[in-house]
Amino acid sequence: MRRTTPLALTAAALLLAGCGSHDGGDSGSNGKVSPAPSSSDTATRSPDPTTGKCADQVELKAADNGRTVCVTKGGEVRLTLDGTRTRPWKPVTASGTGLTAINAGLVLRPGDATAAYRAVAAGTVRLSSSRPLCAEPTAPGQVSCKGIQEWRATVRVG
């Protein structure tokens, strides 16, 4: 496993901060940046702000990077990361206790990562994946990019 120095982490963070949040595609975006999720987008991702209760169903996307969500015991967490053939997401990994993997269905597009979990006990689980920051060069003389885009979310089972 390769060790990363603090300087490298700082440089990567600065690079990512300047990149914005793109739609995940490699073509056709015309430089457009995806908007931040609105408050209605987060309704199934976090506890109800009026009652403080956890959600029965949680759906996570790439825009949920860094979020902490709460799901009730017996509820489900579903995750879809849209990737591309040239910038594929690695399979989602889960570390911690409280969730058990269930069938997520089929991945229809190359590069996507999907996962599904059932909340079986109180606990906390960290979900993660990563993909190349940019596509590999397709012709001689093009610049190579070795950066990695990481995705993480924390799921609390309450």
In brief:
By secondary structure, the chain is mainly β. The protein has one helix spanning 6-19; strands spanning 55-60, 68-81, 93-96, 99-102, 113-119, 123-132, 148-157.
Please work out how many helical segments DSSP would assign.
Answer: 1
Topology as a string of helices (H) and strands (E): HEEEEEEE
Largest sheet: 7 strands, mixed
- What fraction of residues sit in β-strands? 25-35%
The level of helicity is: under 10%
Could you tell me the number of beta strands?
7
Distance from N terminus to C terminus (CA atoms, Å) equals 34 Å
Tell the overall outline.
elongated
State the low-pLDDT regions, or none: 1-45
* Structural class by SSE content: mainly beta
If you compute it from the alpha carbons, what radius of gyration comes out, rounded to the nearest whole angstrom?
A: 17 Å
Mean pLDDT over the full residue set:
76
Show the helix and strand layout.
Layout (H helix, E strand, L loop, with lengths): L5 H14 L35 E6 L7 E14 L11 E4 L2 E4 L10 E7 L3 E10 L15 E10 L1
Parallel strand pairs: 1-2, 2-7
Antiparallel strand pairs: 2-5, 3-6, 4-5, 6-7
What descriptors fit this protein?
single chain; 158 residues; mainly beta; seven-stranded mixed β-sheet; 7 strands
Task: Write a structural description.
There is one protein chain. With 158 residues, the protein is mainly beta. It has one helix at residues 6-19, and strands spanning 55-60, 68-81, 93-96, 99-102, 113-119, 123-132, 148-157. Strands 1, 2, 3, 4, 5, 6 and 7 form a 7-stranded mixed beta sheet that branches. The protein is elongated and about 55 Å long.
